[in-house]
Amino acid sequence: MSDQPEIHDLLERCREGDSASMSRLVDLYGRRCYGYFYRLTGNRDTSEELLSDLYVRLVEKISSFDGGSFEKWLFTIASNLFRDHLRKKYRQKRLLEQKAQFLETDNRPEKEIDGALSDRLQEGLKTLDADTAELIMLRFYGDLSFKELADMRSEPIGTTLSKVHRGLKKLKEWMDDAHERKQETTE
Amino acid sequence: MKENKKQLNDLTRTFYDESEAAQMSREIEDADALLASFDSPCLRAGLADQIQADMRRRSAAIHRKTVLLRSLLSGAAACLLIGAGLFWMLRQQAAPVLTAGADLNVQEIFSDETAASIASDLDEISEQIYAADVAGWDRLWDTELRTIQEIEEMELLTDNDFWKG
Questions:
Q1: Measured by CB atoms within 10 angstroms of the end CB, which terminus of chain B is less buried, N or C?
Q2: Collapsing DSSP states into helix, strand and coil, what is residue A66?
Protein backbone atom coordinates (compact mmCIF):
# COMPACT_ATOMS: atom_id res chain seq x y z
CA MET A 1 0.00 0.00 0.00
CA SER A 2 2.90 2.33 0.66
CA ASP A 3 6.09 3.02 -1.20
CA GLN A 4 8.79 2.04 1.28
CA PRO A 5 11.66 4.17 -0.17
CA GLU A 6 9.41 7.23 -0.09
CA ILE A 7 8.49 6.47 3.50
CA HIS A 8 12.13 6.10 4.48
CA ASP A 9 12.94 9.49 2.92
CA LEU A 10 9.96 11.04 4.68
CA LEU A 11 11.02 9.62 8.02
CA GLU A 12 14.57 10.82 7.52
CA ARG A 13 13.29 14.34 6.85
CA CYS A 14 10.88 14.16 9.80
CA ARG A 15 13.83 13.21 11.98
CA GLU A 16 15.47 16.46 10.89
CA GLY A 17 12.31 18.32 11.89
CA ASP A 18 10.92 19.01 8.40
CA SER A 19 7.31 20.22 8.74
CA ALA A 20 6.25 19.33 5.19
CA SER A 21 7.26 15.70 5.73
CA MET A 22 5.29 15.55 8.96
CA SER A 23 2.24 16.85 7.12
CA ARG A 24 2.76 14.25 4.42
CA LEU A 25 2.87 11.46 7.02
CA VAL A 26 -0.43 12.67 8.47
CA ASP A 27 -1.95 12.81 4.98
CA LEU A 28 -0.75 9.30 4.14
CA TYR A 29 -1.69 7.44 7.31
CA GLY A 30 -3.95 9.74 9.33
CA ARG A 31 -7.23 8.44 8.00
CA ARG A 32 -6.29 4.77 8.26
CA CYS A 33 -5.07 5.15 11.82
CA TYR A 34 -8.13 7.18 12.73
CA GLY A 35 -10.35 4.46 11.22
CA TYR A 36 -8.52 1.84 13.28
CA PHE A 37 -9.06 3.78 16.52
CA TYR A 38 -12.61 4.72 15.67
CA ARG A 39 -13.71 1.16 14.84
CA LEU A 40 -12.26 -0.11 18.11
CA THR A 41 -13.37 2.66 20.46
CA GLY A 42 -16.56 3.72 18.69
CA ASN A 43 -15.92 7.25 19.87
CA ARG A 44 -14.84 10.21 17.81
CA ASP A 45 -13.22 12.29 20.58
CA THR A 46 -11.27 9.35 21.97
CA SER A 47 -10.11 8.42 18.47
CA GLU A 48 -8.91 11.96 17.79
CA GLU A 49 -7.03 11.98 21.07
CA LEU A 50 -5.44 8.61 20.32
CA LEU A 51 -4.51 9.70 16.80
CA SER A 52 -2.86 12.83 18.12
CA ASP A 53 -0.96 10.78 20.71
CA LEU A 54 0.09 8.35 18.00
CA TYR A 55 1.71 11.03 15.87
CA VAL A 56 3.46 12.62 18.85
CA ARG A 57 4.72 9.15 19.80
CA LEU A 58 5.86 8.67 16.21
CA VAL A 59 8.00 11.83 16.41
CA GLU A 60 9.48 10.65 19.71
CA LYS A 61 10.27 7.16 18.48
CA ILE A 62 11.24 7.94 14.91
CA SER A 63 14.91 7.22 15.53
CA SER A 64 14.06 3.70 16.74
CA PHE A 65 12.55 2.74 13.37
CA ASP A 66 14.89 0.02 12.08
CA GLY A 67 13.93 0.21 8.42
CA GLY A 68 11.53 -2.74 8.19
CA SER A 69 7.83 -2.47 7.37
CA PHE A 70 6.68 1.02 8.33
CA GLU A 71 3.03 -0.04 8.58
CA LYS A 72 3.88 -2.79 11.04
CA TRP A 73 5.94 -0.36 13.11
CA LEU A 74 3.25 2.35 13.05
CA PHE A 75 0.37 0.02 13.87
CA THR A 76 2.36 -1.62 16.66
CA ILE A 77 2.56 1.82 18.30
CA ALA A 78 -1.15 2.35 17.57
CA SER A 79 -2.00 -1.04 19.10
CA ASN A 80 0.02 -0.26 22.24
CA LEU A 81 -1.74 3.09 22.58
CA PHE A 82 -5.12 1.43 22.20
CA ARG A 83 -4.28 -1.16 24.84
CA ASP A 84 -3.08 1.58 27.22
CA HIS A 85 -6.37 3.34 26.59
CA LEU A 86 -8.34 0.17 27.40
CA ARG A 87 -6.40 -0.35 30.63
CA LYS A 88 -6.99 3.27 31.64
CA LYS A 89 -10.68 2.97 30.84
CA TYR A 90 -10.94 -0.28 32.79
CA ARG A 91 -9.27 1.30 35.83
CA GLN A 92 -11.61 4.31 35.67
CA LYS A 93 -14.63 2.08 35.31
CA ARG A 94 -13.62 -0.08 38.26
CA LEU A 95 -12.97 2.98 40.40
CA LEU A 96 -16.37 4.37 39.57
CA GLU A 97 -18.07 1.03 40.18
CA GLN A 98 -16.47 0.85 43.59
CA LYS A 99 -18.06 4.17 44.42
CA ALA A 100 -21.37 2.81 43.15
CA GLN A 101 -21.78 5.60 40.70
CA PHE A 102 -23.32 5.22 37.34
CA LEU A 103 -20.72 5.39 34.66
CA GLU A 104 -21.72 7.79 31.98
CA THR A 105 -18.68 7.74 29.80
CA ASP A 106 -18.88 8.40 26.13
CA ASN A 107 -18.13 4.85 25.05
CA ARG A 108 -21.24 4.43 22.96
CA PRO A 109 -20.73 4.63 19.22
CA GLU A 110 -21.93 7.74 17.53
CA LYS A 111 -24.99 7.31 15.41
CA GLU A 112 -24.93 7.74 11.67
CA ILE A 113 -21.40 8.94 11.46
CA ASP A 114 -20.67 7.44 8.08
CA GLY A 115 -24.07 6.09 7.18
CA ALA A 116 -25.94 2.94 8.13
CA LEU A 117 -23.26 0.56 6.81
CA SER A 118 -20.68 1.93 9.22
CA ASP A 119 -22.99 1.48 12.14
CA ARG A 120 -23.55 -2.12 11.13
CA LEU A 121 -19.79 -2.76 11.08
CA GLN A 122 -19.41 -1.00 14.39
CA GLU A 123 -22.15 -3.10 15.98
CA GLY A 124 -20.74 -6.26 14.43
CA LEU A 125 -17.30 -5.61 15.85
CA LYS A 126 -18.81 -5.39 19.32
CA THR A 127 -19.94 -9.01 19.04
CA LEU A 128 -16.29 -10.12 18.85
CA ASP A 129 -13.83 -10.35 21.71
CA ALA A 130 -11.52 -7.34 21.96
CA ASP A 131 -8.39 -9.19 20.81
CA THR A 132 -10.01 -10.64 17.67
CA ALA A 133 -11.64 -7.32 16.79
CA GLU A 134 -8.28 -5.62 17.10
CA LEU A 135 -6.55 -8.24 14.94
CA ILE A 136 -9.17 -7.78 12.22
CA MET A 137 -8.83 -4.00 12.32
CA LEU A 138 -5.03 -4.23 12.28
CA ARG A 139 -5.28 -6.43 9.20
CA PHE A 140 -7.78 -4.14 7.52
CA TYR A 141 -6.47 -0.66 8.36
CA GLY A 142 -2.83 -1.59 8.85
CA ASP A 143 -2.79 -3.77 5.74
CA LEU A 144 -0.77 -6.29 7.72
CA SER A 145 -0.14 -9.89 6.73
CA PHE A 146 -0.90 -12.83 9.04
CA LYS A 147 2.82 -13.20 9.64
CA GLU A 148 3.15 -9.58 10.71
CA LEU A 149 0.13 -9.93 13.00
CA ALA A 150 1.57 -13.11 14.52
CA ASP A 151 4.91 -11.33 15.09
CA MET A 152 3.13 -8.44 16.79
CA ARG A 153 1.28 -10.79 19.10
CA SER A 154 4.27 -13.12 19.55
CA GLU A 155 2.11 -16.13 18.75
CA PRO A 156 2.24 -18.89 16.10
CA ILE A 157 0.94 -17.84 12.69
CA GLY A 158 -1.58 -20.71 12.72
CA THR A 159 -3.17 -19.31 15.90
CA THR A 160 -3.49 -15.83 14.36
CA LEU A 161 -4.90 -17.24 11.12
CA SER A 162 -7.47 -19.28 13.01
CA LYS A 163 -8.50 -16.35 15.26
CA VAL A 164 -8.90 -13.92 12.35
CA HIS A 165 -10.76 -16.47 10.24
CA ARG A 166 -13.20 -17.24 13.05
CA GLY A 167 -13.68 -13.55 13.76
CA LEU A 168 -14.23 -12.58 10.12
CA LYS A 169 -16.69 -15.44 9.64
CA LYS A 170 -18.66 -14.46 12.72
CA LEU A 171 -18.62 -10.79 11.72
CA LYS A 172 -19.85 -11.55 8.20
CA GLU A 173 -22.65 -13.80 9.47
CA TRP A 174 -23.73 -11.18 11.99
CA MET A 175 -23.74 -8.44 9.36
CA ASP A 176 -25.64 -10.57 6.84
CA ASP A 177 -28.25 -11.30 9.50
CA ALA A 178 -28.44 -7.65 10.45
CA HIS A 179 -28.91 -6.75 6.79
CA GLU A 180 -31.76 -9.28 6.43
CA ARG A 181 -33.40 -8.04 9.64
CA LYS A 182 -33.25 -4.49 8.35
CA GLN A 183 -34.79 -5.49 5.03
CA GLU A 184 -37.58 -7.36 6.83
CA THR A 185 -38.42 -4.36 8.96
CA THR A 186 -38.51 -2.02 5.96
CA GLU A 187 -40.81 -4.39 4.10
CA MET B 1 1.45 -5.96 3.50
CA LYS B 2 -1.55 -8.28 3.27
CA GLU B 3 -1.15 -11.58 1.39
CA ASN B 4 -2.41 -11.81 -2.17
CA LYS B 5 -4.75 -14.64 -3.23
CA LYS B 6 -1.95 -17.09 -3.99
CA GLN B 7 -0.03 -16.36 -0.78
CA LEU B 8 -3.24 -16.77 1.25
CA ASN B 9 -3.95 -20.14 -0.40
CA ASP B 10 -0.41 -21.32 0.29
CA LEU B 11 -0.68 -20.23 3.89
CA THR B 12 -4.01 -21.95 4.58
CA ARG B 13 -2.78 -25.13 2.85
CA THR B 14 0.09 -25.41 5.35
CA PHE B 15 -2.46 -25.87 8.17
CA TYR B 16 -5.51 -27.48 6.52
CA ASP B 17 -6.27 -30.01 3.81
CA GLU B 18 -7.01 -28.86 0.26
CA SER B 19 -10.80 -28.40 0.53
CA GLU B 20 -10.73 -26.82 4.02
CA ALA B 21 -7.93 -24.50 2.98
CA ALA B 22 -9.82 -23.39 -0.14
CA GLN B 23 -12.96 -22.68 1.88
CA MET B 24 -11.02 -20.77 4.52
CA SER B 25 -9.28 -18.63 1.89
CA ARG B 26 -12.63 -17.89 0.25
CA GLU B 27 -14.25 -16.88 3.55
CA ILE B 28 -11.35 -14.61 4.45
CA GLU B 29 -11.46 -12.95 1.02
CA ASP B 30 -15.24 -12.45 1.23
CA ALA B 31 -14.96 -10.87 4.67
CA ASP B 32 -12.10 -8.66 3.52
CA ALA B 33 -14.24 -7.49 0.59
CA LEU B 34 -17.14 -6.77 2.92
CA LEU B 35 -14.93 -4.70 5.23
CA ALA B 36 -13.55 -2.82 2.24
CA SER B 37 -17.08 -1.81 1.27
CA PHE B 38 -17.27 0.36 4.38
CA ASP B 39 -15.84 3.82 4.15
CA SER B 40 -13.23 4.77 6.68
CA PRO B 41 -14.41 7.57 8.94
CA CYS B 42 -13.08 10.95 7.84
CA LEU B 43 -10.88 13.19 9.95
CA ARG B 44 -12.58 16.24 11.41
CA ALA B 45 -11.65 19.45 9.63
CA GLY B 46 -8.71 21.02 11.37
CA LEU B 47 -7.65 17.81 13.12
CA ALA B 48 -4.78 17.17 10.71
CA ASP B 49 -3.48 20.73 11.24
CA GLN B 50 -3.73 20.32 14.98
CA ILE B 51 -1.81 17.04 14.83
CA GLN B 52 0.86 18.56 12.60
CA ALA B 53 1.26 21.45 15.05
CA ASP B 54 1.61 18.96 17.92
CA MET B 55 4.24 17.05 15.94
CA ARG B 56 6.22 20.21 15.18
CA ARG B 57 6.08 21.29 18.82
CA ARG B 58 7.26 17.91 20.03
CA SER B 59 9.98 17.74 17.39
CA ALA B 60 11.24 21.21 18.38
CA ALA B 61 11.24 20.21 22.05
CA ILE B 62 13.23 17.06 21.28
CA HIS B 63 15.65 19.09 19.14
CA ARG B 64 16.14 21.63 21.95
CA LYS B 65 16.75 18.86 24.44
CA THR B 66 19.28 17.22 22.12
CA VAL B 67 21.12 20.52 21.56
CA LEU B 68 21.18 21.20 25.32
CA LEU B 69 22.48 17.72 26.05
CA ARG B 70 25.14 18.04 23.36
CA SER B 71 26.21 21.45 24.71
CA LEU B 72 26.44 20.06 28.23
CA LEU B 73 28.51 17.11 27.08
CA SER B 74 30.78 19.34 24.99
CA GLY B 75 31.23 21.70 27.96
CA ALA B 76 32.05 18.83 30.27
CA ALA B 77 34.57 17.45 27.77
CA ALA B 78 36.16 20.89 27.35
CA CYS B 79 36.44 21.34 31.16
CA LEU B 80 38.06 17.92 31.42
CA LEU B 81 40.59 18.74 28.70
CA ILE B 82 41.44 22.14 30.23
CA GLY B 83 41.84 20.54 33.67
CA ALA B 84 44.11 17.84 32.29
CA GLY B 85 46.15 20.45 30.41
CA LEU B 86 46.59 22.64 33.51
CA PHE B 87 47.59 19.65 35.62
CA TRP B 88 50.18 18.64 33.05
CA MET B 89 51.59 22.19 32.86
CA LEU B 90 51.84 22.49 36.65
CA ARG B 91 53.67 19.21 36.83
CA GLN B 92 56.10 20.39 34.15
CA GLN B 93 56.81 23.61 36.06
CA ALA B 94 57.72 21.84 39.31
CA ALA B 95 61.47 21.71 40.40
CA PRO B 96 63.56 19.59 38.02
CA VAL B 97 64.79 16.29 39.38
CA LEU B 98 68.45 15.57 38.77
CA THR B 99 69.19 12.17 37.42
CA ALA B 100 72.48 10.32 37.30
CA GLY B 101 74.44 11.15 34.20
CA ALA B 102 72.44 14.22 33.39
CA ASP B 103 74.39 17.29 32.38
CA LEU B 104 74.02 20.00 34.93
CA ASN B 105 74.59 23.55 33.94
CA VAL B 106 74.70 25.66 37.11
CA GLN B 107 73.68 28.66 35.10
CA GLU B 108 70.28 27.05 34.54
CA ILE B 109 69.71 27.02 38.30
CA PHE B 110 71.67 30.04 39.63
CA SER B 111 72.17 33.49 38.27
CA ASP B 112 75.59 34.40 36.81
CA GLU B 113 76.70 36.39 39.88
CA THR B 114 75.76 33.66 42.34
CA ALA B 115 77.45 31.04 40.22
CA ALA B 116 80.65 33.09 40.04
CA SER B 117 80.62 33.63 43.81
CA ILE B 118 80.16 29.90 44.51
CA ALA B 119 82.91 29.02 42.05
CA SER B 120 85.37 31.41 43.71
CA ASP B 121 84.49 30.05 47.19
CA LEU B 122 85.08 26.51 45.99
CA ASP B 123 88.47 27.47 44.53
CA GLU B 124 89.51 29.13 47.79
CA ILE B 125 88.50 26.12 49.89
CA SER B 126 90.31 23.67 47.62
CA GLU B 127 93.51 25.78 47.80
CA GLN B 128 93.35 25.81 51.59
CA ILE B 129 92.91 22.04 51.75
CA TYR B 130 95.79 21.49 49.34
CA ALA B 131 98.14 23.73 51.35
CA ALA B 132 97.23 22.06 54.68
CA ASP B 133 97.81 18.54 53.33
CA VAL B 134 101.13 19.28 51.72
CA ALA B 135 102.47 20.84 54.97
CA GLY B 136 101.58 17.99 57.35
CA TRP B 137 101.75 14.90 55.13
CA ASP B 138 105.45 13.85 55.60
CA ARG B 139 105.29 14.11 59.40
CA LEU B 140 102.17 12.06 59.60
CA TRP B 141 103.54 9.41 57.32
CA ASP B 142 106.79 9.13 59.34
CA THR B 143 104.92 8.58 62.64
CA GLU B 144 102.70 5.92 61.21
CA LEU B 145 105.67 4.16 59.61
CA ARG B 146 107.51 3.97 62.91
CA THR B 147 104.55 2.52 64.69
CA ILE B 148 104.30 -0.26 62.14
CA GLN B 149 108.00 -1.12 62.55
CA GLU B 150 107.59 -1.36 66.33
CA ILE B 151 104.68 -3.73 65.96
CA GLU B 152 106.62 -5.95 63.61
CA GLU B 153 109.58 -6.10 66.00
CA MET B 154 107.29 -7.11 68.87
CA GLU B 155 105.79 -9.85 66.78
CA LEU B 156 109.26 -11.22 65.93
CA LEU B 157 110.16 -11.31 69.57
CA THR B 158 107.03 -13.16 70.57
CA ASP B 159 107.48 -15.65 67.76
CA ASN B 160 111.05 -16.53 68.92
CA ASP B 161 111.49 -19.39 71.28
CA PHE B 162 114.43 -18.09 73.38
CA TRP B 163 112.24 -17.08 76.37
CA LYS B 164 110.85 -20.54 76.68
CA GLY B 165 114.13 -21.63 78.27
A1: C
A2: coil
Q: The domain containing residue A92 runs over which residues?
A: 4-186
Complex ipTM: 0.75
| Chain A residues with CB-CB distance to B60 below 8 A | 17
Question: B51 to chain A nearest CA, in Å?
Answer: 5
Domain span holding position B8: 1-35
Contacts of B54 in chain A (CB under 8 A): 52, 55-56
pLDDT digits (tens, 9 = 90+) for A144-167: 999 999 999 999 999 999 999 999
> What's the structural domain count of chain A?
1
Q: Identify whether B42 is part of a domain.
A: no
- B34 touches A: beta carbon within 8 Å: yes
SS3 of A16, please?
Answer: coil
Contact indicator for B30, A172 with CB cutoff of 8 Å: yes
Nearest CA in chain A to B54: A56
pLDDT tens track for A30-57 = 999 999 999 999 889 999 999 999 999 9
Q: Residue A111's CB: how many other CB atoms inside 10 A?
A: 8
User: Quick one: DSSP state of residue B15?
Assistant: T
Into how many domains does chain B fold?
3
Report the distance separating Cα A158 and Cα A150, nearest Å. Answer: 8
- For residue A56, the domain's CATH number is 1.10.1740.10
**A-B contacts (CB, under 8 Å):** 115
Is residue B57 in some structural domain?
A: yes
Lowest-confidence segment of A35-49, A138-152, B15-29, B138-152 by average pLDDT: B138-152
